[in-house]
Amino acid sequence: MKSHAELLFKRKDITVVIAGILLLGVQVIITVICIYQGLLGFVGVFYLLLTLGLGVIFGYSVSKWIIPVTKMNRILSYAEENEDIEALLRELDKMTEGERPDRLFAGISELINREQQAQILSTEATIHVLQSQINPHFLYNTLETIRSKAILQGNEEIAKMNEALATLFRYNISRPGEMATLADEMDNVESYLIIQQYRFRDKFKVTKIFDEADGYLMAYMMPILTIQPIVENAIHHGLENKIGQGEITIRVFTTQNRLMIIISDDGIGIPEEQLKEMQRKLETVNSVSDKSVNQKKPRGEGIALQNVHQRIKFYYGEDYGLEITSTEGCGTTVEIFLPKIYDFKEGA
Question: What residue ranges in 199-245 does DSSP mark as E strands?
C-alpha cells in the first residue's frame, strides 16, 4: 500500500528538491567557513547574502509552483491508475487555494462531475432496462393474442387499444437510451393518445401544428421519450380534473439554430407557489452535478419534467432544456428547446 507522500510525489521529484536544498546548504556552509576564517572578506559577505537570496527564491519557487504542480500530476496519475474519482476529489480538497491553479482545478472538477453524472445516468438506465425485461416477446405475443380474439369477436376498440399498447411497449422497452426522430416521437405520442382517448372518451382533443416550411422537421433528433411524458402530464394534471372538454396543442417549429416544441393545455393550471417550486427545480437541475437523480422521489408532474429536462441538458448542454409557465384556472405551457440535429437517412 502506497503512503500518502508516495501518492503525491514520484521519487525523482523528491530527489530533485532534496538535491537543490543540499546544494544550497553546502554552499552556505562553505561561505560561512570562508568568512569566519577571513578568506573572503567583504566579497564573502556579499556572496553569502546572494546565496541566501537565491535560497529564498528557490524555496519560494518550490513551495509555490513545483510542489503544487507535482502534487497535481501525482493526484491525476493516481486517479487514472486506480480509476477512483472519489479519491481524486479527496486529494484535491486537501490542497490549499494557493496550491492549485483555479482555472485548472475548475476544469478538472467539471470533468470529474460530468464523469460522475454519466455514471449515475448509465446506472439508472441499466436498472431501468433490467426492471423492464419481462420477456418482451412474451408480452407482445400475449397482446397480439388478445387483439386477435377481440377482432374475432368483433370488438374493434379492444383490438385497437391492444395494438396501441403493444406499440408503446416496443418503443419504451426495446429502445432504452436511444435517440429518436421527431416522427418517431410523434408516432409514440399517437399510440399513447389512442389509449387515453378510449379511457377518457371525449374528455379532450389534441391539435398538432407543424412548421411545414422546414423540410427536415420530422427528421430532427432528440432523446427518446421527450414528448410523451409532457403530454401525459397535460392529461393527468391539467385536463383530468377539468370540467368539460379540454384541449392539448402540440406545436413544432424551428428557429435559426433551435428546434422548438411547445405543448400547452387549457386545463386547471398550476398554483403559483407550486409553479415557482417546479421552476426552481428546473433551474437547479444541472446535467453534470445535480445529485437529485440518485434519490428516490414519488412520481409527479415535476419529476417527469426534471427527467426530460436533465436528459436534454446531458446530451446537448446548458443552452437547451425545458421551460414551464402556467396560470391557475387557465392552463399550462411547456416549451422544449433542442438543437437542430437531424437524421440524414430520414431527411434524405
Answer: 204-210, 221-223
Specify whether the CB–CB gap between 248 and 231 falls below 8 A.
Answer: yes
Helix segments in the chain, DSSP class H: 4-8, 11-36, 41-61, 67-82, 85-94, 102-132, 136-152, 156-173, 182-200, 228-233, 272-284, 301-316, 344-347
List the chain domain ranges: 4-100, 177-182+198-347
Which pTM does this prediction carry?
Answer: 0.59
For the segment 46-62, the average pLDDT, to the nearest whole number, is: 64
7 or 252: which leads in pLDDT? 252
Amino acid at 81: E
- Per DSSP, the residues of 2-39 read --HHHHH--HHHHHHHHHHHHHHHHHHHHHHHHHHTTS
**With left for phi above 0 and alpha for psi between -120 and 50, is residue 245 left, alpha or beta?**
beta
Question: What pLDDT, on a 0 to 100 scale, did the predictor assign at position 227?
Answer: 95
pLDDT tens across 161-211, in order?
888 888 887 787 766 567 899 999 999 999 999 888 888 888 899 999 999
Region of 146 on the Ramachandran plot (φ > 0 left; ψ -120 to 50 alpha; else beta): alpha
CA pair distance 123, 120, nearest whole angstrom: 5
CA 105 remoteness from chain centre: 20
Please, is 29 exposed, middle or buried when counting C-beta atoms within 10 Å of its C-beta (0-12, 13-18, 19+)?
Answer: exposed
- Residues facing 97 on adjacent strands: none
Burial 311-326 (b: 16+ CB within 10 A, else e): bbbbbbeeebbbebeb
**Integer Cα distance of 333 and 178 in angstroms:** 26
In this structure, whether the domain defined by 177-182+198-347 belongs to CATH 3.30.565.10 is answered with yes
Distance CA 3, CA 296 (A): 38
Secondary structure (3-state) at 213: coil
Taking each helix axis from N to C terminus, what angle separates 136-152 and 156-173, rounded to the nearest 10 degrees?
170
Where is pLDDT greater, at 252 or 69? 252
Tell me how far apart the alpha carbons of residues 207 and 36 are, in angstroms, rounded to a whole number. 99
